[in-house]
Amino acid sequence: MSAEPDGPEGRLRRFATIWSRAIFPVTATSLTRPEFEQQLVPLARRLRDALQERVFDAKQGQAVGAALIDTHCTDPEALSRTLDCVDAYLVLYCGGDGPREELRARSARVQHAVAAGFAQALRERTLAEQEAISRAALSARSAVAEALHASEARFRAVFHGAAIGIGIADLDGTILEVNDALIRMFGGLESNVRGRNAAEWTHPDDSPHVWKLYEELVRGEREHYRVEKAFYRPDGTVLWTNLTVSLLRDADGLPQYQLALMEDTTERRLLNLRLRYEATHDALTGLPNRTLFFERLEKALAAGDGARFGLCYLDLDGFKTVNDSLGHAAGDRLLVEVADRLQSCATAPGEMVARLGGDEFVALTTGTDTETEVDELAGRIMNALAAPIRVEGRELTVRGSIGIVEGPAGERGAADVLRSADITMYRAKSAGGNRYELADPEADARAITRHGLTTALPAALERGEFFIEYQPLVHLGDGSVRGAEALVRWLHPQHGVIGPDRFIPLAEHTGLIVPLGRWVLEESVRQARLWEGRVLDGGATGPLRVNVNLSPMQLTHPGLVSDTVDILEREGLEPGGLCLEVTESALIGADDDLLKPLRRLAEMGVDIALDDFGTGYSNLANLRRLPVSVLKLDRSFTQSMQHFPADPVDLKIVEGIVSLAHSLDLAVTVEGVETGAQADQLRELGCDTAQGWYYARPGPPDQLHELALADAIS
């Protein structure tokens, strides 16, 4: 069945039609335009795939550029029109429903890849043609030698009829004969070439070995050589050629003449330079792009002893706000102005500025004293951004965060240097922005470790690397164990046991906290049910309650209530055996929608504890509207009670909180109890339960059973 006219395939073919109409007039092909369009359809499909792929692959675009050469689209105008079509229509017809900003950025990268593939394929085709010319040149040498010995007429026919430039010189280098093609290369006058000496045609771009090869040839030490060489024309312009010089010997085998074959490659070289420029420079700002920057950085890092480098990694603060409020056109004008200002900051030898993409720029300085130079460069950049930029009649204040990496060459690779600069830049941004920070290896290591832990979290849950320790909750009145708080740990293969303070924020950031929290709840409820059976058998008066922490992200998850009910029913634990702890900060200003799941759980009989109470500065009057039954007093209020006498102010505060809580029918639990004096003081103040190292450190579930059994026996 054919694709719908307005479906993805239909839009793809519409793009192929526009493309074929644009480049068919400049394509050397015997096909009709509809036939040529059919050849472009699979290429258009590859462009669409490159645009829509999750991870950009430059090989798709490069393959399209190379395929253009295979379809005889070798005219530079064909490439120019192709890039125009991709820029104007690829996102429109092949972009799908993706974000336009990202698609436009991806389209620019696709264009660069197509240009690079076109240039590489054209270069390979050129090399193949040059090889054919070389073979023709060698054949011509044999033919010329034979003609000199056999027939002057045949020699003249080959010599003057050749399409490439041919010249004959004696061993001293004096030009004796030239054909019409060579004369045209040098301006059309025979006097510009004939009679001159080859030694006069030196050029500053000559590689050092060119004249060494020439000397070896005239001495008879080699038969021929081939080089790329530039010549000055009489009008001062430069002629670039592929030059093949061969030695002609007489009948006795002695050197007699030089035969030079020249192919004019000036236009091809200019095209390659243009394509190279487009492939290595940012289309919007004209600055070097990521490709060229990495080439320069790798060269700087490969310099010899004593060489150093300094790198400034800049990211504009709040640039997304400009795009969202004023539009991408205004954002582009802002980036162009920023690029101009940055360019003016890096004018000294060894300095360069590049745009990596989006609003990220880099500045590189090299030399022997980059420790001072990179600081000065960063200062110039911050000063350059200080003045407002006028865009669409508005003056925009530009702020930037800079990460600086400086050091000796040869110690690190380009990717490591840029990663360190990126990490440092984000450290400057997190410190408030509009500043620069120096790279710190320890901070880099911590950031890399955080990243490694973040990426390892999903697999860690699947492999069962998490385990739970339990810290007893003790009744202050009679000292009996009433339950325990479940505390999750990560047994990392390399880092050992990792506490929740290190990986819970990472899990919340990645969204893994929901499945991890569900696992912790399920394991804790199962353990509470085991305790219930064992402790009752041992003679205890009631079940042990388990406290499980909930993160703010779990509170907003729609499956919180259903998951909790399902786990309790599946494990056979009564709702009263579970207490869910929620931090005070998570409930500050909470609306009814956020509180609704907690109210439903509380109505079922699940206890809700307000954890870290006293750290969130909440309005105490709001306690009445929260579905909580327990206040867990933060340890900061009771630290002064570890020794006698306690701070009277802290005593008054705790006494007031306990009195308020009891008046609202709320139980009070205290965390961080570490001494007997502290426990006695809290008991006198009326606190209900406590936990801390004074009673037991977090440990395996059997520890709690032993404590509870001891209480039952006593």
UniProtKB/TrEMBL annotation:
Domain GGDEF intervals: 307-441
Positions of the PAS domain: 151-221
The EAL domain, residue ranges: 450-712
SMART domains the record matches: EAL, GGDEF, PAC, PAS
CDD domains tied to this protein: EAL (cd01948), GGDEF (cd01949), PAS (cd00130)
Coiled coil: none
Family matches, as Pfam families: EAL, GGDEF, PAS
Annotated PAC domain residues: 225-277
Protein name from the UniProt record: EAL domain-containing protein
Organism: Streptomyces anatolicus
